[in-house]
Amino acid sequence: MSMLELRHVSKKYGQGSAEVHALHDVSLTVEEGGMVAVMGPSGSGKSTLLTIAGTLEDPTSGTVLINGQPVNAMSRNAKARLRRRTIGYVFQDFNLLPGLTAAENVALPLELDGVSGRRARIAALRGLDRLGLKERASHYPDQLSGGERQRVAIARAMVGERRLLLADEPSGALDSVNGEAVMRLLHDACKGAGMAAMVVTHDAQLASWADRVVFLRDGHVTDQTTPVQGPESLLETEQQ
Amino acid sequence: MSVPHAMLALLSEGPKYGLRLREEFEARTGEVWPLNVGQVYTTLQRLERDGLVESDRTSEEGPQKSFRITAEGEQELARWLRTPPDLSSPPRDELVMKVLMAMRMPGTDVHEVIQAHRRYLVELMQQWTRIKEDDNAGDDLSVALAVDAELFRLDAVVRWLDAAEARIQRAAADGSLTRESPAAPQTRTLAPLPRHRREARTPR
């Protein structure tokens, strides 16, 4: 089943001579348990696409469906509830609140959604434990390494009953080993926990973790990869 | 990929027979360079002919025949490990050539050409990344290093395509990209690096 579907989505900013077409007729779907990467250079419309998919902005035309529900028709409150309960965001610069511990950061979305502090904390600790951060639960963001901060941000994005992960250059601020660890976690969230993920990036190594890579240029989807073959085809016997 | 030198490296740990060499070669290289048995024995015969390994003459020909590295083989192995491979050749690879040609060809969309190569490379990278997925936490160091080497190599090509596309787009926008080739006097070639920086010799 499609967790995220964009149908003919376009987005314009400004008017007249100042009009900018950020997205043109973009259609794509992300299935449950699937990961789609959107690759493109700066200014190609990647971040706008993510913002619209995350219901933080409305498209100028076209439809966004999350878990089969058209977002366009929802009230502001319904969209806010959808964002709190269904969608998790991961950003390049982590966006953790500096005055809260790792556990408090992870628990925050649940508490904002009315879950009791005790239950939210239990869920946060469980999430941190799953990502290998149990011992860091009471640390503040400035006491954590970059890789640990991003893992906290992923724990926050997955906490509760969230089904859709949206990530904007999630390993952009990390070295390659920590970047790979982050991609492994996002991949496991899809394959293990059945979440759907859309990752926007200009990094091909990052994108190669996805089931499908969609290429964006000047707001248009120009191309996409075909389903990935197994690695066996790479392992042909070398001939001398 | 220098199979003969990899065989010498394995034999530097002690005498081994052919089948074992094959198994160890595949394990050490993360099984991303499978070898057939015939290849192993042909390589060992050449190394023996060149005096870099010697076989146990008391044992019979066949899979149980044992080989050991000679002093000359040890020297050759030490030289090979420390000699940079030949990465110095000017950029005349086929992909670069295709983009350079497409850029000025009438009726050809160079962006479409670049995208076709980019897609192929990313698909290849996805396949290599699947090997990492199978190796759950990156526990097999040989697999992780061998796959990383391929991914970084392919990534460098994708980055070059990205940079090339951005430059071409900029040149098209400011009018400096013309269909005619630049005049001959403006043409510059890249001088090759000195010979001593090159290598790529296998045992005689």
Structure characteristics:
heterodimer, A: 240 residues, alpha/beta, Rossmann fold, six-stranded mixed β-sheet, four-stranded antiparallel β-sheet, 10 strands, 32% helix, 27% strand, globular, B: 204 residues, mainly alpha, Arc Repressor Mutant, subunit A, 2 domains, three-stranded antiparallel β-sheet, 7 helices, 3 strands, elongated, disordered C terminus
Task: Describe the model.
The complex is a heterodimer of chains A (240) and B (204). In chain A, 32% of the residues lie in helices and 27% in strands. With 240 residues, chain A is an alpha/beta fold. Chain A folds into two domains: 1-9 and 20-86 and 162-227, P-loop containing nucleotide triphosphate hydrolases (Rossmann fold, 3-Layer(aba) Sandwich), CATH 3.40.50.300; 99-160, no CATH class. With 204 residues, chain B is mainly alpha-helical. Chain B has helices spanning 3-11, 18-28, 37-49, 71-82, 94-102, 110-134, 141-173, and strands spanning 16-17, 53-55, 66-69. Chain B has a three-stranded antiparallel beta sheet. The interface between A and B is large, with 34 and 41 residues.
| Structural class designation of chain B | mainly alpha
Summarize the amount of helix of chain B as a percent range: 40-55%
What sort of overall outline of chain A do the alpha carbons produce when their principal axes are compared? globular
Strand order of the largest sheet of chain B: 1-3-2
What's the helix count of chain A? Answer: 7
Overall average residue pLDDT of chain B = 82
Distance between the termini of chain A: 48 Å
Give the SSE map.
The complex is a heterodimer of chains A (240) and B (204).
Chain A: E1 2-13, E2 20-31, E3 35-39, H1 46-53, E4 61-66, E5 69-70, H2 76-85, E6 87-91, H3 102-112, H4 117-130, H5 146-158, E7 164-168, H6 176-191, E8 196-201, H7 204-207, E9 212-217, E10 220-224
Helix pairs in contact in A: 3-4, 3-5, 4-5, 5-6
Chain B: H1 3-11, E1 16-17, H2 18-28, H3 37-49, E2 53-55, E3 66-69, H4 71-82, H5 94-102, H6 110-134, H7 141-173
Antiparallel strand pairs in B: 1-3, 2-3
Helix pairs in contact in B: 2-3, 5-6, 6-7
